[in-house]
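Backbones bend. To wit:
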Amino acid sequence: MTQDIARSAPSRVPKISERIANQIADKILGGDIEVGDRLPTEKEMVAEYGVARTSVREALRLLESRGLVTIRAGIGGGPVACRPQFEALGNTMKLFLQLEGANLSDVIDTRLTLEPVVAQLATPRITEEQLDDLQSALDTMRTRPDDYDNFIEKNALFHTIIYTASGNPVLRILMETLLLLVRDAEPSRHPEVTRIAAVEAQQLVLNAMRSRNASAAGDAMEAFVHDTAKYYRKRLAHIISEPVHWQL
């Protein structure tokens, strides 16, 4: 009886502002409005949608909170279409992880489980251009070992290319978010010797992928992330078991 009532209960009718926000979001996500394009002014949207200015403003606030619009101040400003960033997703994930009592060790374990799988999926799909980009990232890290910012950038790029090559956008989004969560927890810079060792371990992953040996690529990635996890558990021992902490 209860289930019948639940099934027959009418769904919530979206507010006017939500309907406007959905229409604008569809245009941005569908490519009708490109990232960087200015949206119509509030006055123009009031006329276009036939609603009150307050509804338009609320719609824009909703879009801004989702990372689809940024409001530029000053002359020539106004709402501008933008692309949501993984940092926003990572921050939202932190909120739910904290609610569930998850800690950094849980995040690391998840990467430890999934990274080899992603590498195996990517190996038969990765293009020669992507393989060359992986090698370029490693070469840059190898030849500039004292450039920490370059290491962080190219290391993230190395993983992102593999995530993309897996052909699974859900895995790519999840893995990039997990990568950010671990990076955000790092209290200080990695020693140069650790960075060099990471590059050489990643080279083994790339060599296996270039040979189109999915099993070997998975094994090499598993060895790499296992050593990385061991390093993090020692380096972050003071916070590894603490709940993930969400902040604005």
